[in-house]
Specification:
Blueprint: H1 2-10, H2 12-46, E1 57-58, H3 69-74, E2 79-80, H4 82-122, H5 129-143
Antiparallel strand pairs: 1-2
């Protein structure tokens, strides 16, 4: 049983997945910071500084009685926080677009690297098999 577990862990798929998860977690912090610290302020310039996260409805009460979502939830009131959902959707779309651009860039670099490898592999390093056979044939003819 222990040997089976060692074989399972040693497989490339499991190790690749583990590395991917670790890199993904670190990458999430970078992309989240990019969105929160760089892209959202630019969007705020175009929308006049509107922050949707404060948009909420109090269920079974009056929203004007509470200054913020936090105040309403502290009071124990049921809150329909539509603004947080809207901001989550906007952030998701921005993050998905940034990840798309990064993956596209990585794929472009990878394709360029593969092209160089293919071009290097296509360059003949010497005479081809057909050329060698023709030389042997010509040499044999010359001896006769």
């Amino acid at each position: 049983m222990i040997q089976e577990f060692k074989d399972f862990i040693a497989k490339g798929n499991v190790m690749d997945m583990a590395v991917g998860i670790i890199i993904g977690a670190a990458f999430t912090a970078i992309v989240s910071s990019l969105v929160a610290d760089l892209i959202n302020p630019i969007i705020a310039l175009f929308t006049g500084g509107v922050d949707f996260s404060g948009w909420f409805y109090v269920i079974g009460g009056n929203a004007s009685d509470y200054a913020s979502i936090e105040a309403a939830t502290e009071a124990g009131v049921a809150v329909f926080a539509i603004g947080r959902f809207v901001m989550a959707v906007i952030n998701f779309l921005i993050i998905a677009f940034v990840v798309f651009l990064l993956v596209k860039m990585v794929n472009r670099v990878k394709e360029a690297s593969e092209k160089k490898e293919e071009e290097a592999a296509e360059e003949p390093s010497g005479p081809s098999q057909e050329e060698l056979l023709m030389e042997i044939r010509d040499a044999l003819r010359a001896q006769n």
